[in-house]
Amino acid sequence: MFADLTNAYTPSFGLMGHESLIMQQSDIGAIADSVKDCLRCGKCKPVCATHVPRANLLYSPRNKILATSLLVEAFLYEEQTRRGVSIKHWQEFEDVSDHCTVCHKCFTPCPVKIDFGDVTMNMRNLLRKMGKKSFRPGNKMAMAMLNATNPDTIKFMRSAMVNVGFKAQRAAVDLFRAVGKHQTAHPPATVGAPPLKEEIIHFVNKKLPGGLPKRTARALLDIENKDYVPIIRDPKTTNSETEAVFYFPGCGSERLFSQVGLATQAMLWHAGVQTVLPPGYLCCGYPQRGSGQFDVAEKMITDNRVLFHRVANTLNYLDIKTVVVSCGTCYDQLQGYQFDKIFPGCRIIDIHEYLLEKGITLQGKGSYLYHDPCHTPMKLQEPMKTVKALVGDNVLKSERCCGESGTLGVTRPDISTQIRFRKTEEIRKTEAVLRESGQVGAKDNVKILTSCPSCLQGLNRYQDDLKNGLLEADYIVVEMAREILGENWMPEYVKRANEGGIERVLV
Q1: 3-state secondary structure (DSSP) of residue 209
Q2: Which contacts qualify for 135-143: CB closer than 8 Å, 24 or more apart?
Q3: CA pseudo-torsion sign 188, 194, 198, 203
Q4: Which of helix, strand or coil describes residue 15?
Q5: What CA–CA distance (Å, rounded) separates 187 from 171?
Q6: 365: which residues sit within 8 A by CB, 6+ positions away?
Q7: Each residue of 344-384: pLDDT tens digit?
Q8: What pLDDT is attached to residue 363?
Q9: pLDDT tens digits, residue range 179-192?
Q10: pLDDT at position 5 over 70
Q11: Domain ranges of the chain
């Protein structure tokens, strides 16, 4: 139940007749309409990742709506006086849209139910359509990697990114450590993009992850051909009547952190089910929408849905009732795919909740921190209940956004620096609780688990930020594979799968 705020006073702008006509014929009218009910109450501030006053970050949804309203007024004035919209106003408009992690957390406390995450995506889409979106090399490379479907292209880009880019960035962190530490301890304000030299320091003030698998999950299993649907199963324990699940790995769990996709497959193998994978490399389309590339996203989503219908028709004898994901943004995007019409009567579920259903747990073998992603994939119950049921009661929740936010860490690293300031405080606070309780030794490393590929990259950047020891970031399903299947779980699973555990069906 919500209060009836129909007649509540809002300080939003009132439009004259001819102004309304202009607004109705432009995308900016929809943006203005989506924020017009804001009461300026500020209830969104406590949950907003881009509102950290002590890090000079004051871009709460309330403040961004104020700025957006003023910019819309400026656009209207310039349109009516035929001066042309000022480039400076477009830059300010882009700056507002940049200061958002698209976590959608502001929607819950908002009394008039404004979701500034959706507003932000619409703003970015408008900037793209108007040709006013700034060129940012990091974002361009990341999106090219996510949009690619050709195995050779992905192999080349991954090699360039991981073997060259990540290594160079990690070396630069060591080189500029003193400057980087000063910057992270006292983050400067981010009103507009910073000078190039300062932005480079922002990009190299915390290390990107190292020690990643050399190849993608599909390359290791030789299932890159998009003409075939791979069905992975243990031939010794399964048959044609065994339960089958459709696993959508997404780009993060398959292309970059391939250990996540492989661990998911290994645990499904361990659970005794047949795992059907999509043919070829696919992305769900959420990163494209988040970046404002609505045209690319819609085409990608439509192509995927058509392909999945073909897969369902080809494999109708398997009677798939479960779609498994290992990424929260994939979960959120796939909810719009209408999977119940692709695999009739099916459901979407996170791999961790699926393993809990099967009774596969660690039974309290260690002590951990847990970072719940902004786009949490665990929907059946409060995520911490699921996590504690899987890994034991010795786990503490680490609040706040990690600062990676998909491609934000490479698009606007200056904003990420400010967001990480708050996350560092939270990590150190929970570290102290773990050590004081005796669950972790005074000098031991601390392990933080998560369930999002982007967060896994983001959390790896905090490895040197503890009071004592190192922070080790990992995925829950990877930790489970290591503890249940053994330290060599990955090569052993790949070997078993490649020795008769993969059926390739022409689609």
Answers
A1: coil
A2: 136/410, 136/411, 136/412, 138/203, 138/407, 138/410, 138/411, 138/413, 139/291, 139/407, 139/410, 139/411, 141/165, 141/410, 142/287, 142/407, 142/410, 142/411, 143/287, 143/288, 143/291, 143/293, 143/407
A3: positive
A4: coil
A5: 22
A6: 391, 392, 483
A7: 999 999 999 999 999 999 977 789 999 999 999 999 999 99
A8: 78
A9: 999 999 999 998 88
A10: no
A11: 17-129, 137-203, 217-359, 368-485
Structural contact between residues 257 and 88, judged by C-beta atoms closer than 8 angstroms: no
Could you tell me which residues are beta bridge partners of residue 397?
A: 370
Question: Which single residue is written with the structure tokens 């300062």?
Answer: 198
Structure tokens at 66: 């104020």
pLDDT of residue 21: 56
Closest CA to 275 of 289, 287, 261: 261
| Residue 365 to residue 20: CA distance in whole angstroms | 62
Question: What is the distance in angstroms between the CA of the first residue and the CA of the last residue of the chain?
Answer: 48
Report the half-sphere exposure of 300 (CA within 13 A, side-chain side): 21
d(CA 36, CA 414): 30
φ, ψ at 25 (rounded to 5°): -95, 15
Could you read off the pLDDT of 217-260 as tens digits, one per residue?
Answer: 999 999 999 999 999 999 999 988 899 999 999 999 999 999 99
As given in the structure block, the two tokens for residue 117 are: 């995450």
Q: Give CA–CA dist 282/246, Å, rounded.
A: 14
Q: How confident is the model at residue 459 (pLDDT cuts 50, 70, 90)?
A: very high
Q: What is the mean pLDDT of the chain?
A: 92
* Residue 24 identity: Q
Cβ neighbours of residue 283 under 8 Å, at least 6 residues apart?
146, 147, 250, 251, 300
Q: Which amino acid is at 473?
A: A
**In a 3-state reduction of DSSP, which class is residue 369?**
strand
> How far is it, in rounded angstroms, from Cα 398 to Cα 450?
10
Sign of CA dihedral 122, 127, 128, 129: positive
Q: Say which CATH class 217-359 falls into.
A: alpha beta
238: tokens are 């399964």
Q: What is the pLDDT of residue 443?
A: 87
Q: Kindly report the CATH class assigned to 17-129.
A: mainly alpha
**pLDDT tens digits, 138-160:** 899 999 999 999 999 999 999 99
3-state helix, strand, coil in the chain (%, to 5): 50, 10, 40
The number of angstroms, rounded, from the C-alpha of 363 to the middle of its chain's C-alpha atoms is 28
- What does the pLDDT look like over 94-150, one tens digit per residue? 999 999 999 999 999 999 999 999 999 999 999 999 899 999 998 999 999 999 999
Enter the tokens of residue 458.
């983001």
C-alpha R_g of the chain: 24
